[in-house]
Amino acid sequence: EDKVVQSPLSLVVHEGDTVTLNCSYEVTNFRSLLWYKQEKKAPTFLFMLTSSGIEKKSGRLSSILDKKELFSILNITATQTGDSAIYLCAVGGTSYGKLTFGQGTILTVHP
Amino acid sequence: NAGVTQTPKFQVLKTGQSMTLQCAQDMNHEYMSWYRQDPGMGLRLIHYSVGAGITDQGEVPNGYNVSRSTTEDFPLRLLSAAPSQTSVYFCASSRNGYYEQYFGPGTRLTVT
Q1: Of B44, B65, B73, B112, which residue is the least packed, with the fewest Cβ within 10 Å?
Q2: Interface probe with A: pick from B4, B31, B43, most Cβ of A within 10 Å
Q3: What's the pLDDT at A67?
Q4: Strands (E), A1-111
Q5: Which domains does chain A have, with CATH numbers?
Q6: Scanning every residue of chain A, which has its alpha carbon at the shortest distance from the alpha carbon of B93?
Q7: pLDDT category of residue A68 using cuts at 50, 70 and 90
Q8: How near does any CA of chain B get to the CA of A98, in Å?
C-alpha cells in the first residue's frame, strides 16, 4: 500500500521567514509527486516532480525530489500572509489513476 | 470552460437517506476521481475512473457507488448515509492518472 507522510503537521511563522515543508513516501513503481496549496476551497496545483524533472521553481516557491531517499521538500522564501494555507503532497505510482495524499501541513503566516 | 463543477455545494442528510453528488467536467479528461477530506487526514480517494465505463475502488469505497457512462460525468452515490460520511467531498479530473488533477469546488455534506 502506498504511503505519504508530511511534516510538520502545522507551522506558524512570521512574514519574511523561510519555511521548508517535507514529504516522504513509500510507493511501488514511482511515477510522480505533486504539491498542492489549499486555502478555504479546493486544492490548487503548485508543482509536479517526476524522474525527469526533480527540481521546480516558481517565484518564491521551489521544490526538489530525492528519489534515492524517497522524499520531497517544498521551500517558501520571504513568506507572506497570503501563503497561509494547507499544503498537500501526493504521489502517483502503484496503480494508474491512484494518487495517494499525505495529511497536509497547515502553514500560518502572521504579519 | 467551466472546468470541474460539483452540485450541490452543501447538503444535510438524515441517517439512512440516499443521495447523489454530481460532478461534471468539460475538459475532455479521461481520468476522474472522488475524494473526501476530513480534518487532519488530507484527501482520501473513494473511487476513480480512467475512462467511460471503467471505475475502480480507492482507499475508502465502502458506502459509496459510482458509474461513468460518459466522459463528462462522474456521479457519486451514497447508498444509506451514516454520520461517519460527514465530510467535504471533492471531485477531480486529469488528462493522465499520474499528473495534475483539477479539483471541483467541493460539496460539504452533513449527516445527522
Answers
A1: B112
A2: B43
A3: 86
A4: 3-7, 10-14, 19-26, 32-38, 44-49, 55-58, 61-66, 71-76, 85-92, 99-101, 105-110
A5: 3-110 (2.60.40.10)
A6: A97
A7: confident
A8: 7
